[in-house]
Amino acid sequence: MVMEQRAAAIDRARVAALGEERLDWRFKAVPAQAWGLTVREYLATGPTLDQLATPLLTLDAGALAHNLRTMADWCAHAEVELAPHGKTTMAPALWQAQLEAGAFGITVANLPQLRVARAFRVSRVMLANTLLDPAGLAWLADELAADPGFSVSSWVDSVAAVRQMDQALRAAGATHPLEVLVELGGPGGRTGARDQATALAVARAVDQAPTLRLIGVAGYEGALAHDSTPAGLATVEAYLAAMVELHDALRAEGHFTGVERVLVSAGGSAYFDQVTQALAPLAATHRDTTVVLRSGAYLAHDDGFYRAISPLVRGAGGRPLRSALHGWARVVSQPEPNLSLLDGGKRDFPYDLGLPEPQLARPGRVLTGTVTALNDQHAFLRDSDAEIGEVVRLGLSHPCTAFDKWTLIPVLDDASAEHPRVVDLVRTFF
After folding, report:
1. What is the CATH number of domain 65-300?
2. In this protein, which residues make up the domain named D-serine dehydratase-like (predicted)?
3. Domain 12-60+321-427 fold
4. Is the pLDDT of residue 1 over 60?
């Protein structure tokens, strides 16, 4: 059962103020004709995609709205909370939309991202990492002391980390304990205690540290599997069973005595169905336990990795997500037969989980061909009927390495329309 939660908040006035930022050469998505205008003034001119230069990254407004509602509805039906991983977009305006759709809070991955969240006064933040930086811990202690409405949690996976955090917080004169979750990892994964004994030792160390307070268990199954094969799904299932075992062992040892809300958190955008199936029964059994998913890529989705692996195309119920993410690049050279060079490359589009795929040539012609390689500023499109000067729409894979390449991202009313209109500009902070 999901406990009644105080809604997380963000400073809407600070987000709205992004509309008053003046446009200039710093934003590669913006045409020179817009320089000197504010974001709000530029949007009032009714710009269209045709007026923007290439290379370009855009978002589709309809797909964003669909994905936002789809995931919110799915979590509500499954009776789990969602703290979207903000590191995917680092876009406060998109965080605001997620929070207003009912998100439990925002997840971040490191100290700089946490500072962005605090700059926009996000009231509940989960740091999915261990914060050991003494200066960062001192800053965070001041934030907690200054804002009674601010809730933040960090992860810990070793006794040494617990001791260093406690020492730094003591030195900073912390007056409010920092809430932490024991992180469970797995062989070959990233961070996280590798076995139950280590995780229990971490919890006992937290209990002895007056500057820290244990509130739950966390982990990331996506570091242990990267496909939806039976072997991959079995690896995820075994890991989640270990998380349940750790939660039960911590509860049996009394580590959650006096904790009003125990958090159990896992779940990216690839296996949130398995996470829910494994962890939701904990909340049904223990009224003080809340299961929190941290899916982040679902909002933009993609035409690659997540399109293939999403639980919503593997029978998890709910409507399939739609890709809101597109690249646009122009054919600038055809120096050999069956080879077209586009003016967008690694500096513009993601490539770590699959190369871009050609979809359309403006203004809507279905395009043949395959992108076989990317250089820093070019894409190699082979066996295509593209022509010199044509603008190609590209399907992209992995939003987490797309947003970071753009400080301002145009939002189109419909990326498949003959003449898409620019209806918003999303500011990112990486």
Report:
1. 3.20.20.10
2. 324-413
3. Lyase, Ornithine Decarboxylase; Chain A, domain 1 (2.40.37)
4. no
